[in-house]
Amino acid sequence: MQRRVAVQASAEQWVQCAKCKKILFAPDFERAMRVCPHCGHHHRLRARERIQITVDPDSFQETDAELRSTDPLQFPDYADKLRKGVAASGETEAILTGTATLGGYEIVIGAMDFGFMGGSMGSVVGEKVARCFERGAERRLPVILFCASGGARMQEGLLSLMQMAKTTAAVGKLQRAGMPYIAVFTDPTMAGVLASFASLADVILAEPGALVGFAGQRVAAQASVGKPPANFQTAEFQHEHGMVDLIVPRKQLRPTLTYLLEMFLPVEAHAR
Amino acid sequence: MMTIFDFEKPINELESAIAELRQLAAEKGLDRSREIAELEAQRERLLRQIFAHLRPWDKVLLARHPKRPYALDYIRLMCESFLELHGDRLGYDDPAIVGGLAKLGGYKLMIVGQQKGRDLKERQKRNFAMAKPEGYRKAMRLFRLAEKFRLPVLTLVDTPAADPGVESESRGVSEAIAQSMLTMFELTVPTVAVILGEGGSGGAIALAAANRVLMLEHAIYSVIPPEGCAAILYRDPNKAPQAADALKLTADNALELGLVDVVVPEPLGAAHRDPQTTALSVRAAVLQQYEELSKWTPDALREQRYQRFRAMGVYETTR
Asked: Are strands B315-317 and B220-222 parallel, antiparallel or unpaired?
């Protein structure tokens, strides 16, 4: 009862953990990078917040911000969903990309935003992802991508399926340039995104508890003999099955990524 | 089991009448040839009429028709010879994907395709052509083998989707699909993909990252099954026909969008009414592609494939 009163008194000061439902003091919660201090639940981040807590201060320069989705199939409600996506995420599309430095290393970085149409991959997301890999190959920079997506964007039909192939081809270009690609699976990393560029990284990290899988849980259960395990399609499940290198708590991500860059890049790559 | 779709019913009724009349004529030794010819002409007119006005949903049903020829039927009907190879060399051999060495019109090829089953037992064995990770890993192994011995690759796509079950998830079905595409992109031999029936989302594109992508007239190619789309869009899987319209999943749509290169025509009444003719059309279309692609250098083949898919996508650039 007391808690409820507190929430009402100054709503902006208090938030509730989505998992354990405990009431948290908002400034503390933000300082903990939206990880619940009680149960450790990793709440989703906006793409811009993600990049901000990851890269060196003031080093991020956005790229390809001018790309906008159209409605090539005149798909029911798509134009409206795009408008709502902008309002919900504060971004123009489901991925934010750019260059930055991380621990002094210059990188190409992208972060998907689940708030924009479930982080779904249509033509613009596919294009921005492909450009990240091409930029990495051309400028000889490593690529770090934070995945957060329900999969391909149904509203662009076959065009969105082709983004799986397009982004995959671009990964190949980066591989031939010999530049590292690190993917971080955050909640959720699913379907068409998981089954294309996300799974092709040199090293794959995942946040604890993130949903990571191919098909929806119901479809998967229907197609299986027996009940799926309790941790089915979690980051931990994928780690157990060899699909994820490491489960990394949010506050450990920056040092882990820096260590990987240091291991893969020559000493000269570090900014003086 | 015989499934007859609504739009096919009048045709099938006529066909039964023709068959009955033939049998009667043979039994009684009567000459009914004029009546039979008349009914056949009627059947032809009806077929033309019906097939001139197919809706996308009718195409979905045709693409899934239980009598539609499957990958191994095409291989048998269009190749001079075929030796099937098995296994991913990682512990499994997925019957949903078949592959092997074929001779076709003077070319030595590696063929990899998804295979549905004809009867219940075979359907179960082949998992309705829903490949597991090991299926895609077998495909990759065969792609690499083709690269090593400079054999052009032909893929035959016909799957509702990749297998979504717990087992497939445990063995990394997403990674297998992604790697299969990447392996195709790295090849320096000519590659041609043909969408035979159902081009079902990730399960299909995993085998379709080719220099040329052909599609049969009544095949479908879609990012999501219409039933799944209807469940999301209209909260009602029974509205799949409307979803099929919205998804633009027909061969004509894919050609208009520039996502497939050639639509291979099917005989009147669709492939299942004349598999032989259909297979010969596919054969001719495929050979035409190899004739052109075989003149290209290995690097040019890889680069064209990259640029082909790189250009896909529709967006605006604002100032």
From this structure: unpaired
